[in-house]
RNA sequence: UGGGGUGUCGUCAAGUGGUAAGACACGGGCCUUUGGAGCCCGCAUUCGGAGGUUCGAAUCCUCCCACCCCAGCCA
């Protein structure tokens, strides 16, 4: 789907599942799950996990559940559960009727906990949080057993029941698994499995005041849903022995946890904490600010679901911590948009051109191709008249070597229109700024070809002044200046690394009239400039606002840079 | 200096004893009414390092080095 006709790359998780299926494990069944905690918006890193989980399930004819890991009511909100569903769906995946919540399992989970107590494998600890920490030991020293570790089953049962009934304050007691305080793996040193929280839950309301911890709830939820392959990120590798322990002790269905490296992207931050900080501090316009690496930000920026999917396929899956180059993401959108986006002409920084030998009272409708990559997208017509706007960058009074655009005395082609020659440069007398170009056109070159076979080096885009629709256009650039914004200099905050030029707003850009009724979300290629989409938040009927998704590759910029380098 | 991981091109990443895929980036060329797109070519004598086993090692063994994760009643 993401890469039609292209075989997906091999990676270790695919190999494991492939082997399990061949061996008939789980009856050849493949069942995964995407388990976000609803405490923030999804970002491109989650997209990797979503594509992996839903993609693998689809690939092997299996299923993938959407399950909210909502075991901490103090951090979770419905706003997030709504946005997460919207984002997953937008990415092109579907969980049918398999929308679950860890909170759906609070009752069975509680019953499992009671069973652990009955089996003498869990106990109520009444140490304070600080004491528990002290008893845990350190990385190099074993922990010490709690004095409450050997309470009787009856006492534990009674205490746990009273915890549930709300007889205690937060922190007074916790339920712990009885494993091994001397384990070199800290996760096995009698992990807390239930804690008291007098907080209403977004789904269960005030039905509970004890909530299960991640380690306890996650694996058991996987088991309850009969998940075959439980994919998670590297930091949970240390938790796998515990994941396995709970399931083994209970003798219930036992999914296999497999860990992979999370995605890092150059020039961006991916931690929910930092993204939240950018939102709360007003450094960006919100979770869906087009500069954000969130799914909603990318969507508003104009990224397509297909481009994100192909990106996720391209980056691969491995256990090595790595940072993917932002250029790969950009390549993925350009590839998709090149195929599907209609071309259109727009001028970002206008320079007026008067075509002296073109009658003032004339307007012509010239035919333009909508997408050279896809003839089925047809043609449209663009109006041409005596006064037009061209890009200021497309004129140089003193053209450097290899500059093929307009300059005094030079002839260029106006795309789909005529050859024009620059005859005169009009400047502001006080500032010296070029304010207008006086040109002449060759009537024989209508449509862009010269009957005498004359060639021209450059073709530039333009918009008829009289017919132009003035639009606001937003140019976005990377949010951070550093390849790795997590690498903050001593004593500085990561926000000091923000790119002050990540947003440039251009008002009153002349765009061709066909764009007047462009609908929110519509994507276009502004010829020679880049891909743009109509902002879904700030556009009004007849007044589209455009967001630049990504610029086109600019080989002239490259040449110019190389020339500058040579001095 | 406890435990768990990872080290293959600038960045990702295949490869699992038979003599280093692919992608992005980069460089060069062709083509072009987008300096876009497309096409072609180039781009790791070498796989963190050092030894060893073998006819043969990125793949096996030994030692070493570097980096990441773990001491939440977060997930």
Structure commentary:
This protein has 567 residues and is an alpha/beta fold. Among the domains are: 272-342 and 475-566, Ribosomal Protein L25, Chain P; 348-467, Ribosomal Protein L25, Chain P, CATH 2.40.240.10. 26% of the residues lie in helices and 23% in strands. Strands 20-17-18-19-13-16-21 form a seven-stranded mixed beta sheet, with no helix packed on it. Strands 12-24-25-26-22-23 form a six-stranded mixed beta sheet. Helix 8 links the parallel strand 8 and strand 9 (256-260). The longest helix is centred in the N-terminal third of the chain and has 16 residues, at 44-59. The chain is elongated, with a radius of gyration of 31 Å. Residues 1-6 have low confidence and may be disordered.
